[in-house]
Structure formats: C-alpha cells, structure tokens
C-alpha cells in the first residue's frame, strides 16, 4: 500500500513521513519471518568493534543523536517540578557556550516521555517549543490492566496533550503465537490514538526468541504502528544490537512491501555517547540516511544526554568535566 496525499495531511510538527495505515493481517508473511541467530549475532558483534568517527565528525554525530532522544522520566517519585526541569533541559539540551564553540545554533531533543499524570506539567513547560510529549500507556510497563482501561488511558493521554503514545503489547500473544489477537490489539490501540503517533513497545527481553521479535514487529506494523520500540526500560534485558538488527530489518521489509517507512526506538540501557554512535551507524548502514531523523529514529533514554554533553565539552575544551555539570533535571 503506497502512501497518498491524504495520508500526509495530519503530521506532527517535526514529522515528514506519512502515517502508517497498516494492512490486513498476512499470516503467511508472518510465518515466513525467521531469524538466523548466529548470523545476526556475528553481524552485531562487528558494529561496535570498528574504528569510530573522530573529532569534528564525532561531534556532529553526537549532536544528531541529541535531536533523536526521547528525554524520559518514568519514576514513581516523579513530580511536576522534576518534569519542568527535564523539559527545560529538553529545550536547551547543550550549554550555549558549547554550541557556539561548535558553530551550532539551538537544538532540542526529539520528545519528552512521561507518565499520563505528568502530561499537564510537561505541556506547560514545553509550550511554544514544538517539542512533542510522548506518554507511556496501556498499563505500562506490564500491559496487564483490563483492555477497556488500556484503551481509555490512551484516549485520556491524547486528550491531555500527548502527541505520541508509547503502548505496550500483550507479551502472551507473542509467546502463544496468537498473531490475530496481537493484530486486533494493535489496531484498537492505533484507533484510540487518533492523530497521535503510536509507538509499539515489544518488550523484546520477554519474547523468548529473535524469531518472535521478527514476527511481533511485522504484526505490529501491519496493525498500524508508526514506530516499533524495543523495551519499556523496566525489563531485565532491554535494547541490544541483535534485537535491533532483527527489528530494523523487519522495518526494511515492511517498507519494501508497502511504501511506509516505520520508525525505530531502542530503549533501556543506552547511557553512553559511544553507544549512540553505534546505533546511528547501524541505522545508516541498514536503512539509510532517511532513518537518521527524529521522525524515524529515537533513543529512549534518561542519562544518555548527560554523557553526550560531557563528550562534546571534552571535544571543545580538551578536558572531561564532572557528570554533575550536565544534569538532566
């Protein structure tokens, strides 16, 4: 299915991609999806072992990484004040003197990600910035609340001002191979989101195999997901390079078949600047330059920004600063 002009009418401010309309569940396509674990792991092992970009090139890639961060706070002790501080950092993620030394103008992160109750303070703090609010939903992180309440939670978050909704799928549907149930769930979540973009969190660390990750990725895209996301950040295993390869190759296959380009969001455990460079290079090599923009790629992270800013200061001054100089909130 190729995107039409009508598909392009409703977009987020920073989004240029048409919404994924989804398609009918194709169980034959799902059954054909496989994952050669040993080959995937060999490929993944080469990504971080290569000589990385250096000096000015590295600084440029790190600035790009910042624009793709979903700056996140998902703690039980979140307060309006903490969210306001996080949003201030989202507006100005890098100190102005560092940006000036790099010859850069102002930049922002890709979005701010919060629980439903924190949408209102985030909206107030981000007013006029153009930075989207992403809200986790559908009984995050386990996704085990009653289905009608999960739908209602999405609707309430959209009403409150979230323009992106990070939903969690029911892992049991994947583990029992009940693809129809997963597809129906994804379609219902997509419909409840309305104009808000929907990111489907697969919780890959709980899906049992890379083959299950590949199949769940396809089913969620068929169901209308605009992004597929690795993890809630609450699992024992979160984003990994093998899982990422499986998911982005499913994205590539889906784009080739339908014309829709789906976004990718690794989340959980990505806290070092050097890790962001590995993920960006993987996206460039596997999917192309188009996936190096915030409408198609996001990092789900809370501490990554601080390390990137620290590396940028080192590039400018030649000295490493203490991490507390780059607090996120």
Explain how this protein is built.
The protein is an alpha/beta fold. Helices cover 46% and strands 9% of the residues. It has helices spanning 27-32, 37-47, 55-67, 80-91, 96-101, 119-126, 147-160, 171-175, 179-193, 210-222, 241-258, 273-287, 304-317, and strands at 69-72, 111-114, 133-136, 164-168, 197-201, 227-229, 263-265, 299-301. β3, α7 and β4 form a beta-alpha-beta unit. Residues 1-13 have low confidence and may be disordered.
State the end-to-end CA separation: 43 Å
The radius of gyration over CA amounts to: 19 Å
What is the string of SSEs from the N terminus onward? HHHEHHEHEHEHHEHEHEHEH
Low-confidence stretches: 1-13
Q: Structural class of the secondary structure composition? A: alpha/beta
Helix content range: 40-55%
* Helix count, DSSP H or I runs of 4 or more residues: 13
The major beta sheet can be summarized as: 8 strands, parallel
Beta-strand residue percentage: 5-15%
